[in-house]
Amino acid sequence: MTELMLLAAGGLIAGMLGGLLGIGGGVILMPILRFGVGLPPAEAAATCVIAVFFTTLGGSYRHYRVGHIRLRSVAPVMIAGLIASAGFSLLFPVLARRGGWLDLGIGLVFLLVSSRMIVEGIPGLIKRAPEPTRQSRVEGPLAHKLSIGAASGALPGLLGIGTGGILVPAFAFLLKTPIKTATAASLACFCCTAAVSSVFKYTQGYVDLHFAMPLSLGTFVGANLGAIVNRRFPSPGLKLLFGIVFTLVALRFILSFARVF
Questions:
Q1: pLDDT for the residue 128
Q2: Contacts for 218 with CB less than 8 Å, ≥ 6 apart
Q3: Tell me: the pLDDT tens digits for 111-139?
Q4: Given this model, what pLDDT does residue 158 score?
Q5: Measured distance CA(178)–CA(132) in Å, rounded
Q6: CA distance linking residue 235 with residue 258, whole number of Å
């Protein structure tokens, strides 16, 4: 009973964080599954993807309802992500046999993203820059969108982790999208790749439904709440919070790899 409560509460927190920052909540869910309930790296990653799907589903729906995103503007990202996620999911069983390296890969991805967000977020809070003009479209060259989609699809397929760490910075820095629109776009695109990755990992036998179900319930509810809070949160603050959370979790995974090797 205590374990189920931990999973539901963790899912709620992860969902709120996901809806607020445009991520899948894996930065909370993966540590819970790996270090809280003790799942091996591959099973933790696969089970996490199931819960992440419900985070992105709830969050993207709420952002769409409040007008943060036009889905047609991110359709190329979604399509490229779906193809990449399916292709790289076929390689997941190979990496699953090397759990320590899975931890290291997740940690390095998180650390790379977090450092950039912190660098961008601190100056914005100090200068108290005004909120950017509201924009619901993700603009940019088609080639850039396809490349971003392919990279984002590779992560849940190969590592079982979310693409928010790729999509939010890519939309914000490469395509110059306002952070709140980038958040909404990330959730919408991530929902597609998480769905594909979930199906593959379930059929491959890595998903533990006993843990996935309470996590998913919590993440779906939390993601809707997080998307509502996002509307009132300052954009530089979102970047800084995103960076801090990713840094802490990245170090946890890297240290886990170091203890194995």
A1: 56
A2: 7, 8, 9, 10, 11, 12, 13, 14, 15, 51
A3: 776 776 677 667 666 665 555 556 678 89
A4: 64
A5: 7
A6: 35
80 Cβ contact list (under 8 Å, min separation 6): 145, 146, 147, 148, 149, 150, 153
- Count CB neighbours of 40 within 10 A: 14
* Contacting residues for 112 by C-beta, under 8 A, at least 6 apart: none
Distance CA 129, CA 126 (A): 8
Amino acid 12: pLDDT: 86
Q: Token pair 């990755």 is at which residue? A: 197
Cα-flanking dihedrals φ and ψ of residue 228, to 5°?
-70, -45
Task: With a cut of 50, list the residues of the chain below it in pLDDT.
Answer: none
Distances (CA, A) of 254 to 13, 35, 101, 165: 23, 13, 9, 16
The domain locations on the chain are: 2-260
Residue with tokens 């990653």: 45
For the beta carbon of residue 150, count every other beta carbon within 10 angstroms. 18
Instruction: Quote the Cα angle for 12-15-18, to 5°.
Output: 155
Q: Using H for helix, E for strand and C for coil, what is the string for the chain?
A: CHHHHHHHHHHHHHHHHHHHHCCCCHHHHHHHHHHHCCCCHHHHHHHHHHHHHHHHHHHHHHHHHCCCCCHHHHHHHHHHHHHHHHHHHCCHHHHHCCHHHHHHHHHHHHHHHHHHHHHHHHHHHHHCCCCCCCCCCCCCCHHHHHHHHHHHHHHHHHCCCCCHHHHHHHHHHHCCCCHHHHHHHHHHHHHHHHHHHHHHHHHCCCCCHHHHHHHHHHHHHHHHHHHHHHCCCCHHHHHHHHHHHHHHHHHHHHHHHHHHC
